[in-house]
């Protein structure tokens, strides 16, 4: 029961500029380089995925977490047969997604980053035709589309053209469409981007409910709380590589100290960094430029007074403090030195 | 091959076409009607043109009508659906090899081209009044009609996958306009004998074979040998299919 996913050493290099907006999926401009500088014409090359290997268990909610352009959407694109991998392989269940596309497509439902609804149809027709593409009988299509429209609070607008829908409604009908043929694996690419908090909660409920039926869910997000509350396991991606993976709890536990104090001083000389290292509970101190220091520690607020004292002793003034509790955000920062929103 | 999915894709295009039926009919009928009225009625009844011109014009107008409607039926939706909204994505994710989606588009375009062509005959006949001399060869006519319909929708596929939304205007003025003027729709190919270079240059224009083929199977006006026409259309169609399918794959998968 349930379908798992395996990715073996997947690489995707774009050799032509992807039609940026046209792809629907994101791509990374990281690792851009001109290959063969001796060539007259510089060759365009963008490494979007740089050797990713992953296993997503059957019935799992798996999160791909990373900033924009990290390679999340390209990974989803490959897994959903929409992007041809440069090398490496990916499997949905037993099917190689590139070699056995039709079999793989039967197992998956996809919610794209931006709604790509068929604008020539009404909401109900979007679902009905989607069901028909997957060979559902007319009766089954009617029943299921009715249920989904109800579930997503779209019954009243069911017979309106989707091109007149608001962004949130388009997103809802996209999700309903992906679930229409009851796929074993549901891909959601940044599902809550642009949703209001209420709809976002509804989405989470629906994802959980779908997962409880034994379905595998793969979602990408750059929201920490989403990955934290929704996902059984998370892989953190940056620059097309996996930085870290595990359950949210495991990942958070792997951060030295747990708490992160981001400090900004009038000046932050080496001596100050050395002093901060000596403070009780501090596990790691990193200088982040002329005036900034990141302190990883097993406590947050109680450290402020000793920090201020240490700074004063060295004639530095503390200008700004931000205390982050143990979270995936701090983990991301720890590994990359950048915030997820950078 | 998954017939259920293929049929559902066709049903979707049929549904959308039915929804736009009135607009589509107007789009397909108005131009041929105006053309036949001006050239076939006003100019012939005033004596500027001989009455025999009506028989020359009817197949030409039919060819233009078929080609334009087939190209538009396939190319225009494709151009929109491959734009940033990626409306086509849902169908690309349907459980069928994506090449079949292109084949389905061609089939749907052929139906529209055939309808447009067949509607023109009675409509043009009514507008031009008496004086059209038909000399009908049903079998050859059916073969030529099918080949012209295939040419128009395969051409639509190739164009639709090569042209961006911003270049639609350019496509009409640079590709379709010269094609129509030098497509032997308004005059038989043999009438170009005073312009020998042009006469052979226009042979690269597929519309020449469409016009001449319909002229040969529908009327007794002078025309290129029908078997030559059929051979040329088969070759052109094969080329357009290969190019169109390749371009479609390039557009569909990154």
Characteristic key phrases:
heterodimer, A: 342 residues, alpha/beta, Rossmann fold, Alpha-Beta Plaits, 4-stranded antiparallel β-sheet, 11 helices, 14 strands, 25% strand, B: 254 residues, mainly alpha, 10 helices, 0% strand
Summarize the structure.
The complex is a heterodimer of chains A (342) and B (254). Chain A is α/β, with parallel strands linked by helices and 342 residues long.
Word description of this protein:
The complex is a heterodimer of chains A (342) and B (254). The two termini of chain A are 40 Å apart. Chain A is built from eleven helices and 14 strands. Chain A is an alpha/beta fold and 342 residues long. Chain A is elongated and about 80 Å long. In chain A, a hairpin with a 2-residue loop joins strand 9 (233-238) and strand 10. Chain B is mainly α and 254 residues long. Chain B has one domain. Chain B has helices at residues 3-19, 21-45, 53-81, 89-92, 98-128, 138-160, 168-181, 196-201, 206-218, 226-252. In chain B, helix 6 (138-160) packs parallel to helix 10. The A-B interface holds A 14, 18-19, 21-24, 77, 80-84, 101-103, 105-106, 108, 110, 112, 114, 116-121, 125-126, 129-130, 132-135, 177 and B 2, 4-5, 8-9, 11-12, 15-16, 19, 77, 82-98, 253-254.
Q: Mind summarizing the main beta sheet of chain B?
A: none
The CATH superfamily of the largest domain in chain A turns out to be: P-loop containing nucleotide triphosphate hydrolases
Number of strands of chain B: 0
Largest interface, chains and sizes: A-B, 37 and 30 residues
- Spatial extent as radius of gyration of chain B: 19 Å
Radius of gyration of chain A, rounded?
23 Å
| CATH architecture descriptor name of the largest domain in chain A | 3-Layer(aba) Sandwich
Give me the strand/helix succession of chain B.
Answer: HHHHHHHHHH
* Estimated share of beta-strand residues of chain B: under 5%
Mean pLDDT of chain A: 83
Number of β-strand runs of chain A: 14
Low-pLDDT residue intervals, each spanning 5 or more residues of chain A:
19-40
């Amino acid at each position: 029961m349930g379908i798992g996913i395996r990715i073996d050493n997947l690489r995707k290099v774009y050799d032509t500029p992807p039609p940026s907006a046209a792809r629907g999926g994101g791509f990374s401009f990281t690792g851009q380089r001109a290959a063969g500088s001796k060539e007259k014409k510089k060759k365009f090359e963008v490494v979007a995925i740089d050797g990713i290997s992953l296993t997503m268990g059957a019935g799992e909610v798996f999160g791909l977490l990373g900033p924009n352009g990290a390679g999340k959407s390209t990974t989803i694109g490959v897994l959903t047969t929409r992007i041809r991998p440069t090398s490496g392989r990916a499997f949905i269940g037993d099917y190689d997604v590139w070699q056995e596309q039709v079999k793989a497509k039967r197992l998956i439902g996809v919610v794209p980053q931006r709604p790509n609804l068929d604008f020539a149809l009404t909401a109900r027709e979007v679902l009905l035709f989607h069901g028909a593409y997957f060979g559902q009988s007319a009766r089954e299509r009617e029943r299921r589309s009715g249920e989904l429209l109800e579930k997503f609070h779209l019954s009243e607008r069911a017979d309106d053209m989707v091109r007149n829908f608001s962004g949130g409604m388009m997103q809802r009908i996209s999700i309903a469409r992906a679930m229409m043929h009851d796929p074993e694996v549901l891909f959601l690419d940044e599902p809550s981007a642009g949703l209001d908090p209420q709809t976002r909660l509804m989405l989470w409920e629906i994802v959980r409910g779908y997962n409880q039926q034994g379905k595998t869910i793969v979602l990408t997000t750059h929201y920490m709380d989403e990955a934290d509350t929704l996902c059984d396991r998370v892989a953190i991606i940056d620059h097309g590589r996996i930085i870290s993976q595990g359950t949210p709890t495991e990942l958070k536990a792997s951060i030295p100290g747990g708490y992160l104090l981001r400090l900004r001083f009038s000046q932050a000389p080496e001596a100050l960094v050395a002093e901060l290292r000596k403070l009780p509970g501090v596990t790691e101190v990193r200088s982040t430029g002329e005036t900034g220091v990141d302190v990883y520690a097993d406590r947050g607020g109680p450290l402020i007074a000793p920090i201020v004292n240490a700074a004063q002793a060295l004639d530095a003034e503390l200008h700004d403090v931000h205390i982050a509790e143990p979270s995936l955000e701090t983990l991301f920062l720890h590994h990359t030195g950048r915030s997820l929103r950078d | 091959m998954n017939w259920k999915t293929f049929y559902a894709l066709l049903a979707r295009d049929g549904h959308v076409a039915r929804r736009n039926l009135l607009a589509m009919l107007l789009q397909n009928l108005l131009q041929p009607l105006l053309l036949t009225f001006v050239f076939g009625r006003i100019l012939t009844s005033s004596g500027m043109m001989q009455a025999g011109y009506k028989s020359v014009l009817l197949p030409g107008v039919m060819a233009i009508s078929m080609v334009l409607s087939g190209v538009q039926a396939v190319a225009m939706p494709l151009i929109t659906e491959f734009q940033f909204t990626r409306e086509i994505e849902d169908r690309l994710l349907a459980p069928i090899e994506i090449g079949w989606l292109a084949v389905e588009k061609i089939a749907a375009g052929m139906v529209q081209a055939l309808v447009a062509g067949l509607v023109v005959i009675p409509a043009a006949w009514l507008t031009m009044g008496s004086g059209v001399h038909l000399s009908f060869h049903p079998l050859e006519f059916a073969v030529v009609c099918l080949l012209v319909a295939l040419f128009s929708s395969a051409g639509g596929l190739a164009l639709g996958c090569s042209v961006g939304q911003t270049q639609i205007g350019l496509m009409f003025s640079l590709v379709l306009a010269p094609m129509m003027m030098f497509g032997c729709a308004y005059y038989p190919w043999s009438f170009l004998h005073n312009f020998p270079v042009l006469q052979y240059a226009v042979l690269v224009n597929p519309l020449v074979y469409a016009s001449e083929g319909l002229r040969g199977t529908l009327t007794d006006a002078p025309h290129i040998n029908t078997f030559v026409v059929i051979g040329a259309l088969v070759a052109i169609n094969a080329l357009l299919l290969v190019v169109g399918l390749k371009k479609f794959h390039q557009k569909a998968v990154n």
